[in-house]
Structure to design on (136 residues):
């Protein structure tokens, strides 16, 4: 069996001023990381306390995210090892499945762009620039 990889507590980020509840932000980030293959089955997540301390959030918030992901089969709890990425999360999702994960956020952005009476070209250009900036 391969050596257990311990994921760092600063792996996750939250927007405390956003509309999305923090536990949902954490869940969505972990789901995306699993779907993209950025975390692998058997990887150990940082403890609830470590994540809460790193993000400055209530430990119950992190615990809720972990528990809901466990119920979905994304994570699994192992005695003496904490929370791990579940074995059935092994295959990275197809590009189509990963794009589908973006759909709700993109639908919201499209609606906001329409309300602001922006045409698609500058919105797409802004997204392209933001994506380039996050890769650097």
């Amino acid at each position: 069996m391969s050596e257990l990889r311990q994921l760092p507590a600063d792996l996750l980020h939250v927007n405390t001023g956003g509309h999305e509840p923090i536990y949902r932000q954490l869940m969505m980030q972990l789901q995306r990381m699993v779907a993209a293959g950025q975390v692998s089955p058997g990887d150990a997540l940082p403890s609830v306390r470590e994540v809460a301390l790193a993000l400055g959030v209530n430990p119950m918030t992190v615990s809720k995210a972990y528990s809901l992901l466990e119920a979905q089969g994304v994570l699994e709890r192992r005695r003496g090892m904490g929370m791990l990425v579940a074995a059935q999360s092994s295959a990275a999702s197809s590009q189509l499945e990963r794009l589908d994960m973006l759909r709700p956020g993109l639908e919201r952005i499209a609606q906001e762009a329409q309300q602001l009476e922006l045409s698609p070209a500058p919105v797409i250009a802004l997204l392209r620039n933001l994506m380039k900036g996050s890769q650097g």
Residues 95-115 form the longest helix (21 residues).
